[in-house]
Design brief:
It is a single chain. The longest helix is centred in the first third of the chain and has 26 residues, at about 45-70. Residues about 1-50 and about 90-100 have low confidence and may be disordered. It is built from ten helices and 40 strands. With about 625 residues, the protein is an alpha+beta fold.
Length: about 625
């Protein structure tokens, strides 16, 4: 019986009637086993490459030996036959075009780019109170509309400086367009001084210039962009000066009136004149207390009234944080594909909240009903950073949430009908977690059309500094590469030494700051310097990026959904700015296309209800999609 050759293993007919056939069948079984991503199994690409070589070589040797024995014209010397087998097997090795994509590599260029920022957050080695361990917001924004992403970094303080009204201010860096940045904070008018926490960006007045909300351990501040490189503090006029300890905030148009509304997550109620007892313990060591045992602070939803003023509609809307949970992460997204925007709030050490938009200006809380409130085993987790995106390209937004050490970061798969399943174990990323994880995002870092997972890590207990324990103060980042089969692989060690630097990281922003078509990563460091991790990818994959300009919809296009089709692969991206924790990212939609030189179709649904479609869109280009004017090249 002749050996059957085929392109896919599942289509093969295995010959087991001979010794050679049985050997070949065994090789297929070995290849099927090694291709399967076992739970908890993480292998390097070079190991896969070695297996491919061995498998291809042995299979071809079987073929050559049998053909040599049966075909007279093929009676070559054994050594020559083996050489032919080797050459053919090398030709059959997988390439980037076959989906065997090299690892993305990241290089920290913050210092050389001119980011001279140093974060302050109390004593670097002593953290008596929980607010000295939080914060670290960071953001990408193009505040001057020159097509290049600028950087804003929240600045903390210290108890002594706060008592003297001598806190520092946030810092704004202008992108020069040549890989370097210039500090322009004072010139831009970003001068409010306080204990800064988070960054939130959005064009709340639809004038075409992105505005800036900074959250604080104390009153928040709203800066209006004047359109000339400067900002004006309009907090009082806008009515968004929440006096509580705010963490993350997000703009989103929940009633689709074309104006961005605002949700602000609040954390704890802290009186600096009556601070909580700092004497708690972690593994027998004295540490600061909280958040459990302390009093939480309720969140707030503001409606944009259209005249530069917001009104508190928390109670009226039903988006009520009734139990005063410890809010850290905020996300607007359409989780049920009904074309309005739901709200997910990640809470520290307490259940998450999912406010489902009922389409009439009100919400229904469905955290437990949806499966997003707690983990699969019903445990409340220390939810820090959150994101939602379609990692398996099935058209539904999935959720990832980062947590504290001795827990696990949770991947929720969207099953449809507002039902989510904790698939962390099945996806291959349920690992014994000794990290404390913060900023995160689903993002395609190697442009293969499948969204990967990134998160930053860093502990909150500085007693770990210099201790020989399995938990550490500074921690490496984590990068999981999407394996295109609903599993992920940890490739951090293969993605550059700068990802492995042990740092107490916090907020993370994602964006293409150098406009080369891949996503770079900006990480805040508690009591330290930020990292600007330039993506130095080694693949030859293609990409597309789109900036949305709403007209009837909000000017940012926040909430618009873009669908890109290349062959049989269909990807979606929902426009947002707030991602992870404390931070704001590049609002442009980003798609990896693998080896496709064009997108067969690009469709967009706008919050106004308008839909547009563009055919045969060339790759490797930045585009603008205007709600009125359509598709054009530009940043």
């Amino acid at each position: 019986m002749p050996i059957t050759f085929c392109m896919k293993k599942k289509d093969c007919v295995k010959d087991t009637s001979s010794r050679q056939g049985r050997a070949l069948a065994k090789l297929w079984e070995m290849s099927e086993k090694t291709d399967y991503e076992h739970e908890h199994e993480h292998e390097h690409e070079h190991e896969k490459l070695e297996r491919w070589i061995i498998m291809a070589f042995n299979m071809l040797l079987v073929f050559v030996f049998r053909a040599r024995a049966r075909a007279r014209f093929f009676r070559l010397p054994l050594s020559l036959a083996a050489l032919i087998a080797v050459l053919i097997s090398l030709a059959l090795l997988p390439s980037a075009a076959d989906g065997f994509d090299p690892m993305p590599t990241f290089t920290d260029v913050a210092a050389s780019a001119g980011l001279d920022f140093q974060h302050i957050n109390g004593d670097p080695t002593v953290k008596d109170y929980i607010f000295e361990t939080k914060g670290g917001g960071i953001g990408f924004l193009d505040y001057d509309n020159d097509g290049w992403l600028d950087i804003i970094i929240a600045q903390g303080s210290a108890r002594e400086r706060l008592a003297k009204n001598d806190s520092p201010h946030a810092e704004l860096y202008h992108n020069r367009g040549n890989g370097s940045f210039e500090k322009v904070t004072e010139k831009a008018g970003i001068t409010f001084r306080g204990w800064g926490m988070g960054i939130c960006t959005g064009d709340y007045d639809n004038d075409g210039w992105v505005d800036l909300l900074l959250t604080y351990f104390g009153p928040d501040v709203l800066y209006h962009n004047n359109g000339n490189g400067t900002f004006t503090d309009l907090t009082s006029k806008a009515g968004v000066s929440d006096p509580r300890w705010s963490t993350s905030a997000a703009f989103g148009d929940y009633d689709k009136d074309g104006l961005l509304d605002l949700y602000v997550a609040n954390y704890l109620t802290i009186d600096l004149n009556h601070l909580p007892d700092p004497r708690c313990n972690h593994r027998g060591n004295p540490v600061m207390c909280g958040p459990r045992g302390l009093v939480g602070a309720p969140d707030v939803l503001y409606h944009n009234d259209g005249n530069g003023v917001f009104s508190d509609v928390t109670q009226k809307s039903g988006a009520v944080d009734r139990d005063k949970l410890f809010g850290l992460g905020v996300l607007w997204a359409d989780f049920d594909n009904d074309k309005d925007f739901d709200l997910l709030v990640g809470n520290d050490a307490t259940p998450n909240l999912l406010f489902v938009n009922k389409g009439d200006g009100t919400f229904e809380e469905s955290g437990f009903l949806s499966g997003l409130a707690v983990s699969a085993d019903g445990q409340e987790q220390a939810n820090m950073g959150i994101d939602a995106a379609d990692y398996d390209n099935d058209g539904l937004l999935d959720v990832y949430s980062t947590h504290f050490s001795m827990e696990y970061n949770t991947l929720y798969h969207n099953q449809g009908n507002l039902m989510f399943e904790d698939v962390t174990s099945r996806s291959g990323i349920l690992n014994p977690q000794l990290t404390v994880s913060w900023g995160t995002r689903f993002v395609d870092l190697n442009l293969d059309g499948w969204k990967d997972l990134f998160h930053a890590n860093g502990h909150v207990y500085p007693y770990l500094i210099g201790r020989n324990l399995n938990e550490t103060w500074g921690q490496a980042k984590t990068l999981y590469l999407n394996q295109k089969n609903s599993t992920f692989k940890d490739v951090t060690v293969d993605s550059g030494q700068d990802l492995l630097r042990p740092l107490p990281s916090r907020g993370v922003a994602f964006g293409d700051y150098d406009n080369d078509g891949d996503i770079d990563i900006l990480c805040a460091t508690l009591n330290g310097a930020p990292q600007l991790l330039r993506n130095d990818r080694r693949d030859h994959n293609h990409w597309l990026m789109f900036r949305t300009v709403g007209r009837k919809s909000n000017r940012d296009g926040i909430g618009a959904r873009i669908t890109v089709q290349t062959g049989e692969l269909r990807q979606i991206w929902e426009i947002k700015r707030t991602v992870g924790i404390y931070s704001s990212s590049d609002p442009r939609a980003h798609f990896g296309l693998a080896q496709a030189a064009k997108a067969d179709s690009v469709k967009i649904w706008w919050p106004s209800g308008k839909e547009q479609e563009f055919k045969d869109v060339p790759a490797d280009t930045h585009y603008i999609i205007d709600e009125d004017e359509g598709l054009k090249k530009g940043y």
